[in-house]
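User: Second chain of the day. Same drill as before.
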Amino acid sequence: MKTFLFYDVETTGLNPAFDQILTFACIRTDLLLNEIDRQTITLQLRKDIVPSPMAFFTHGLTLKDLTCGITEYKAARKIHHLVNTPGTVSLGYNSLGFDDEFLRFLFYRNLLDPYAHQYSNSCSRMDILPITTLYKVFNPGILNWPQIQGNPSLKLDLLAQENHFVTSGRAHEAMNDVEALIGLTKRLYVQKDIWEYCLDFFHKKRDEIRIQNFEKGFDLNGERLIFGILVSASFGPKVNYIAPAVNIGFSAPYKNQGLWLRLDSDDILSLDENLSFEDTFVTRKRFGDVPIVLPMLERFQSKMTLDVSKKMEDNIKKIQENPDRFFSFINYHRDFKYPYVPQIDMDADLYQGGFFSKDEKNQIQAFHSAFDHGDKNIFEHLKSPRVHVLAKRIIARNCSDLFDFQNEAENILRLDALRNKKNQAPVIGYRNDTKLTCADALAELDSLGQELLTPTPDQTQMLSWLRRYIENL
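Assistant: Same format as last time:
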């Protein structure tokens, strides 16, 4: 049976590779949005996590809240089962831009399939934020739209407040946000023809067929270039959340990525500044994923602002007048490969390391079985270096005392690097970024304290416990 699993997460920060989910709340419904069940999973704060003060000021979770939680490994297995229940469509609000990536890294570092919930057992994903954006542009009367400094806002908590969605808690509390999300979805569902139309944007094959049937475009040097209209909340209200674009083909190293060049840029090919192609940008779009792409039809094109329409005309002319540079631009982006990060930490190696091989999957299955049975020889058959490292980290984070692993845990989790000890190399991420250190978090805490001229008692208490906790790390 097909079901929707509406979910939300609260985290220790914004880095999916190095931060941690703290709460996972979900409500399962049928396709008519009738509730079937709900649950909240709270996680213990891991010893190798340096909490971002801003994240904790946003969701308001305290150490007392988290002490009652379960280990990350146990939570990961429960969440993995929920999103992989056959027929599950997991969906959130900006989930494809945030929550789902946190889930992928959660599953990966706990040796669970990071991608199965996207395709296996009739499971799939959706995101209500781009659908809401589409309604805002083409059917705004369906909701009351909150304003911030005279501009419409798509923030879920403000939409819930403005439209009186019934919720049981406070904003940025995971279950409250899930309830607000279902309230929003029920309002969108009223317009069933648009709702059904939107579902196909998250169906890989239907989205592909729809885009392949786009007709409007132009020919250049014997190649047909097709127009589309990108829809994204990130574009903002100034351009009415939409941008004209031209499809420039597919990535060569990443076969599932279609490439779209926005036509509303001021210097579309870096002609004016004569910049390197490294300084140019294209939108990468997978079928069934964000951003939403519409055909260049009059009823959609009419929603573009006059300024955007004028830029589109000017840029098409620039492309036609500079075909050699345009095709050099196309070839650069078609061949572009993300830089290799040589010192990447194993927690962040989800993308660079690639899919688990069949042999690795067998080792992983053996690890989970040994864990469940308390087998002291739990690492004996783990020949893959990354499976071995991740397995050791699972033990170090969740139950080092049970496997006589206490003395090794600190070194395996690289805790000295987070404390800025001498001669300790930073922990490197997949974007060649670094994991938050205690010094970084304390500096963020000082800045936050200065911004709060008259903090509330709750904020003062939050500042105090975060400082004590981070200093004790």
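Residues 53 and 443 are 10 Å apart (CA to CA).

User: Great, on to the next one.
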